[in-house]
Design goal:
Layout lengths: L7 E11 L2 E7 L1 H4 L7 E4 L2 E9 L2 E7 H6 L10 E5 L19 E10 L4 E6 L13 E4 L2 E8 L3 E6 L1 H6 L10 E6 L1 H15 L1
Antiparallel strand pairs: 1-2, 1-6, 2-5, 3-4, 3-6, 4-5, 7-8, 7-12, 8-11, 9-10, 9-12, 10-11
Amino acid sequence: MFTGIIEELGGVLAVEAQPESARLRITGPAVTAGARHGDSIAVNGVCLTVVEVDDGAFTADVMRETLTRSSLGALTAASRVNLERPVALADRLGGHLVQGHVDGTAALLERTPGERWELLRFALPPELARYVVEKGSIAVDGVSLTVAAVDADSFTVSLIPTTLAMTTLGAARVGDRVNLEVDVVAKYVEKLLGARSAS
């Protein structure tokens, strides 16, 4: 479980393609401090398992399913990535409950600069639209954000200077694809209400 508060901007050192998967080597001195084989680290919002740790970098295997259902398949050496370690039970929940399970991807449609912030508008996949509400939470490339506005096929978030400087969203270009994870609470509520109405 994660909070969507990015700890570090990491860099992809290598992508090793394999027949049914890929192996990523990523630098991240902060998130690898104390990390061990088997630990989890979220990479652009995708929960990955650490295989090796050395010299401030870690290696993780990514299955084909994850490569095709997330934006990780487009990573190359020198790509920048958002990194977060799992939340500890004693930690503050600064963002919202994020599982690291990507629900879909979307393209950045528009950037609108403000005096000190920017509005970013993303496409909204139809199958996820019912879970996205104004002032609700959404994780974009693992970043916990508040939905500023939503319509039938897009949603907008407002990024403060810290988010622009400390996450990949600050450098995202129109057309770039990002990982989306909707609020898991909304999915559970839908399932519970559906079971109630079916009985």
